[in-house]
Design brief:
This protein has helices at residues 9-26, 29-49. The chain is mainly alpha-helical.
């Protein structure tokens, strides 16, 4: 009997999880620390050499630039 045309959610999850877990297991603590240090150094360099760093996520509830100070808090 041939397999069903669609696999179950669990089978899909398991394949993805196994791939991710293999990638995580292949990294050493030193590799992870070096990557994070490099990212932090890059961030510090950027913030020290540019006028500002802008996030692409804005909380519209807390950020209301045209409202008067103090009135935009909930």
């Amino acid at each position: 009997m041939p397999p069903p045309p669609f696999t179950s959610d669990f089978q899909v999850f398991s394949k993805i999880q196994d791939r991710l877990q293999s990638a995580v297991d292949a990294r050493t603590t030193r590799q992870v620390e070096a990557r994070l240090k490099s990212q932090m150094d890059s961030y510090i360099h950027t913030t020290n050499t540019r006028l500002g760093v802008f996030c692409d996520i804005i909380d519209s509830v807390r950020h209301r630039p045209k409202s008067r100070a103090g009135q935009n808090r909930t």
